[in-house]
Amino acid sequence: MTTLFEQSVQPAGRQSVPSAGKLPSVEYGLIRAHVLASLVTLVLSVLFGILVATKFTFPEFLGGHGWLTWGRLRYNHTQGIFFGWLGNAFLAFSYYAVPRLANRPVSNRKLGWSLFCIWNFAVVLPGWVLVAAGFSQPLEWAEFPLVVDALVVLAFILMVFEFVLPFLKARLSNLYVSAWYIIGGIIFTMLAYPVGNFVPELIPGARGAAFSGLWIHDAVGLFVTPFALAIAYYVIPATTRRAIFSHFLSMVGFWLLFFIYPLNGTHHYVYSAIPMAAQKGAIVASAYLGMDVILVVTNLLLSLRGSSGTVSKDVPLRFVWFGVISYLLVSLQGSVQALMPVNRFIHFTDWVIGHSHFAMIGFASFLALGGIAHLWQRIPRTRYNERAMNWSFWLLAFGLTLMIADLTIAGLVEAQVWQSSAPWIDSVHAVASYWLVRTFSGLPILAGFVLFWISLITGSRVSAESTSVLSREALENVPVLDVDTVIAHGSSFASRFSYVHALIFGAGVGFFALSFLVLAILPGKELADEIKQVAPVTMPALTASEQRGRVVYGREGCAYCHTQQVRSLAADVRRFGAPTEAWETKYDYPQLWGTRRIGPDLSRESNVHPHDWQLTHLYNPRLVVRDSIMPPYPWLFSGSANQPSQEGLDLLAYLQFLGRARQLSGFDQQTPASVVRSATADMAMANQASARATPPTVPIAMTGGYSDSAPVLHPASNSNDLLEEVSHGATLFAANCASCHGVAGKGDGRASVSLLPRPANLTAARFSDERLSSVLWNGVTGSSMPPWRQLPTEDLRGLVAYIQSLHVPSAAPSTQEATNLHEGKSLFAVNCASCHGDRGTGDGPAAGALAPSPTNFHLKKPTEERAWEVLENGVPGTAMPPWKGQLSADQRHALVEFVRSLYGTLQENSSP
Amino acid sequence: MINLIVIVISAVMFALVLVWWRWSAFRASIEAPKYFMLRQERRFDDGPRTPSSTYLL
Fold it and tell me: Which DSSP category does A766 fall into?
C-alpha cells in the first residue's frame, strides 16, 4: 500500500497533464443559481431559528399571529435548513463535481432548471407558506405537507436522471468515492423519503413511530451525510493536490454507512413501546456506526497529513477540516447517547438539540460552506473575499461552540431536575438562562452566514476564461502523483471489478430494505399482535371534534414540546403514570410521540386540568402558570379566554381525549403505593437521582381523577417552623397560584376573569388542613383548580400554612345567639340540606350530581361578609343559587351564623 | 436478528480487507479512482472552457 501511494510522486512542473479529449460542459449558471438560493434560504432559516430561540425567553414576542407562532417557525426552521440551505448547496456542488467525476456533463440543462424551479418554487417556498398558514405534517424532518412531499419525491427522481445517469454511463470502476456518495445519497433518499413521510399517515401510533424513527435518522444519514462526505472527499484532494490516503478505506466507509445508518433510527425511541429487540438493534447499529465514522475520519485526516499549512491558509479547506472533526465528535456523541444508560438521562433534553445543531451546522453546514467556497474560487467570473470568508469561519466556529456547550449543559441540568420530584416548571426555571445564551449564540452564527454570503459577492471579478490562481499555484509547487501510471496500473485490472461495484450497490439496497424489515415491519407486526390482544374492545375512537383538535395540535407544533409517550423509566412513571403501551396509540394517524420535552408529557392529560384552565392556558399560558414559556394561541379564541372558537374547542376536546381510553380501561385503578414503589424499582432502569425533596411515598404522576391517597398536611405547630413554612408557601403561591387567586389571594388574579366559577377568595374563609390538603391533592372538580400533587409534600404543606395565614378573623366576632342558630338550623334543613347535607358536610342527596361539590362547612368557615355575599348572589358557575329573593335578610343572617358555627365541630368528617 | 446482521456485515468487511491485503491487483484497482479524480481536477483547471458551459447568472 505504501508503495502504491508513494511510487509515482513527481514534481508537478515536470509532468504533463494527460489529455483525455474535450472537457464536458459544466452548468455554471445552475451552480450560481443554487448557491444563491442556498444562501437566501440559509439566512431566512437561521432567522426563523433565532426567532424560535428568542421565544423561549420572550414567549409573547411576535406571539399574536398564527403564522409567526413557535411551532410553525420551528417547522420552517428545520425544513428550510434541510431543503433550502443544504439541498441547494448539495445541488450546486453536484453540478460542479459530477462532470468532473463522471467525465460527462449532467444529463440535461433544461432538466436542471426544472429541478431548480421545483426544488425552490414548488418545495421550499410553498412548503414554508403552507406551514405558516397551518398546513403541515407533525413529523420530525417531515414537516412539509404531503402535497409538497410528492414534489420532493419528483425532485429526487429528476436528480437520478440529472446526476446518476452520467455516472452510470461512466466506467463504475473509475468512480471516485464522492461519486458513490452522490449516487447513494440520491437513490437512498428517494427510497427512504416516501417511507418516512407517507407511511406514518397510514400506519398509526407506535407502529408508525418505528417508520418515523427510521426517517428521522435517514434524513441525516442518507441525504445530509453522503453529500457532505462527498464534498469532504472532493475538496481535500482537490485543494492539497494529493490523492486521499486510501480509496479502499473510503469505499469501506461508504458501504458501512449505507449498511448501518438505516438501522439506527429506532434509537430515538429507546424505552418506548416499540419492541425491545428493535431498540437494541438500533443501539448496536449506532455503536457500529461510530466505528465506521472513526474509519472515515481517520482516512480523511490522513489525507491531510503534511497539509496543516494549507488547512490554515485555505479557508474552504479549513471549513472542510472543521466539518470533518465535527463529524467525528458528533457521531461518537450520537453513538454514546443511544446507549441506554445515557439515553435514559439525556433523551428529550436540550442535550439532543445541541447534538442536532452540532450535526447540522458543525458537520453538514461547515462542509457545505467549504464546498461552496471551494467551487466559487474555481468557476468562471466568481471569487470570494478572503477576509470576509475568514471572519465568517471564526464567527461560525465561535457561535457554534458556544451554542453546543450551552445546550449540552442545559440538557444535563434539565435531566437532573426531571429525575427529581421537583415540579416540571422548575426545569424551565433551571435552564432559562441557558436558553438566553443560546439565543445570543445564534447571532454570531447568523453573522457568520451573512458574512459568507457577502464574501461571495464582494470577491474580485475575473474573466470567464481565467482558471483558479490558487490551483495553478498549487500545481506548480506541490508534488502530485503521476496519475496516468497509477490509473493504467489499476485499470488493467479494474474493469473486471466493475460488476463487484454493482453487486455491492445491490447489497446496499438490500440492507436498506432490511432496515425497514428489521426495525419497522417486524416490530410493527409484533405491535399489531400485541394491540389485538391487549387493547380494550370498547376503546373509543376520536370524535370528529377531537380529530379536528388533533390536527390543530399537530399544526401548532405542540408535539415538539410535549411528548405523548411515557417511557418505561422510573422518573417518567413517577411523574406521568404507567408507561405508554402500543394500544393507547392505535388511533394516532400520524403518531405524535415527539422527541423533545419542554413542557410535560401529555399522554394522560385527560381530566388533569379542568376545561376553563385549559382554555385560559391556551389563550395565554401565563395567566394560569406564571413562569410558563408556552406560546399563546389567541387565534383560537374570539378576543378572550372564555370565548373559544370552534378550533379552540376542538383542541380542548383533543386534550381531554388524551389518556381517556387508559382511564376508562381501568388499567391504573388506584394501585396501592407499595405496589407502585416496587414496580418502579423493578424496572432496574430507574435512576433515583438526588431528588430535592423527600422521595414521595406515592407516585407524583399527573394523572387526573380523585385519589383517596390524599395525605392530610398539617402545618408545623412550632412557631418558628410555621413561619418558615409560611414563607416557603408564599414563594410557591406567588409562582403557582397568584395568577388565578391573585397576589393577595383574593381570587382576583389575571386569569380570574375567564374562569368560572371564579377562583376562591382565600382571605374570605378559614380552611381546615384537611380541606386544603384535599384540594391541593385532587383539585376541585367542576372548577379550574387543578390537582397539585406533583409538588413535593413539603411544598404542599407550605402552601397549606400560607393559605391559612391569609385568613384574617373578623375584628368583632359575631354574636351567635341561640335563637338565630336555631332558626338558621331550621332554614338550613329546609333549603340547603339537599345539597349540603343535614349536617352541613356537603354530602346531601343531590351532591353527587354537582360539580364543584357543595361546601363542607365543617372544613371551611367563610367570613360573615363572604357568606352573606354568597347568599345574596349565589356562586356563578356552580349549583349555588342566589337566595336574596327567597329568604328575608333576617333569615339569611340566621343561615350565615348557622353555617359558620359548624366549622370544626365534626372532626370525624374530615375526609373531603 | 440484529446479531446476525452485525456478524454478516463484519464478515463482509473482513473479507474485503482480506482481499485487499492479499491481492495487490485489487489494491491497485480500488485505489485507481482517487488518481482519476485528481487527473480530472487538473484537466478542468487547465483545460479550455467549452462553449456549452452556461453563464446565465
Answer: E
Q: Quote the CA–CA distance of A799 and A741 in Å, as a whole number.
A: 13
Q: What is the pLDDT of residue A817?
A: 65
Contact status of B22 with chain A (Cβ, < 8 Å): no
CA dihedral A38, A44, A46, A50 (to 10 degrees): 180
- Contact between residue A288 and residue A260 where contact means Cβ atoms under 8 Å apart: yes
Task: Find which of A108, A257, A489 to mutate to test the B interface (most B CBs within 10 Å of its CB).
Answer: A489
Are A497 and B30 inside 8 Å of each other by CB? Answer: yes
For residue A465, give the chain B residue with the closest CA.
B49
Confidence category of residue A565, pLDDT binned at 50, 70, 90 = very high
- For residue A25, the chain B residue with the least C-alpha distance is B53
CB contact under 8 A, A17 and B26: no
Considering CB atoms only, which of B30, B46, B55 is closest to A248?
B30
In a 3-state reduction of DSSP, which class is residue A9?
strand
**Does the beta-carbon distance from A24 to B50 stay under 8 Å?**
yes
- Domains of chain A (ranges; CATH) run 23-460+495-520 (1.20.210.10), 544-682 (1.10.760.10), 719-806 (1.10.760.10), 818-909 (1.10.760.10)
Sign for the pseudo-dihedral over CA of A31, A33, A37, A39 = positive
- The whole-number pLDDT of residue A863 equals 87
* CB within 8 Å: A490 and B28: yes
Is the pLDDT higher at A530 or at A401? Answer: A401
Residue A477 has pLDDT above 90, yes or no: no
A266 vs A126, residue with greater confidence: A126
Strands (E), A103-221: none
**Is B48 in contact with A23 (Cβ distance < 8 A)?**
yes
Contact B38 A237 (CB under 8 A): yes
pLDDT above 60 for A479: no
- Residue in A281, A380, A487 nearest the CB of B32: A487
Chain B residues touching A30 at Cβ < 8 A: 54, 56
B2, B33, B45: residue with CB nearest A467:
B45
How far does the CA of residue B39 sit from the closest CA of chain A (Å)?
Answer: 6
Cα distances from A559 to residues A152, A294, A632, B33, in angstroms, run 24, 34, 15, 47
Q: Write the pLDDT tens digit of every residue in A874-895.
A: 888 888 888 888 888 888 888 8
Task: Considering only the beta carbons, identify the residue of A25, A247, A285 that sits closest to B34.
Answer: A247
Burial classification of residue A848, based on how many CB atoms lie within 10 Å of its CB (0-12 exposed, 13-18 middle, 19 or more buried): exposed
Report the mean per-residue pLDDT for chain A: 85
Average pLDDT over residues A362-379: 97
β partners of residue A766: A861
Q: Do B41 and A238 touch (CB under 8 A)?
A: yes
Segment among A17-26, A299-308, A525-534, A642-651 with least mean pLDDT:
A17-26
Do A542 and A121 contact (CB within 8 A), yes or no?
Answer: no
Angle between helices A350-357 and A424-457 (to 10 degrees): 10
C-alpha cell at A689: 437521582
| Residue B21 to chain A, least CA–CA distance (Å) | 9
**What ipTM was estimated for this complex?**
0.87
Confidence band for A468, pLDDT divided at 50, 70 and 90: very low
Query: In chain A, what percentage of residues exceed pLDDT 90?
Result: 50
pLDDT of residue A484: 56
User: What is the rounded average pLDDT for all residues in chain B?
Assistant: 78
Is A17 close to B39, i.e. CB distance below 8 A?
yes
Give the start-to-end residue ranges of the domains of chain B.
1-32
Question: Which residues of chain B does A28 touch, with a Cβ-Cβ cutoff of 8 Å?
Answer: 53-57
Contact B39 A490 (CB under 8 A): no
Q: Report pTM.
A: 0.85
Q: What is residue A249's predicted lDDT score, i.e. its pLDDT? A: 94
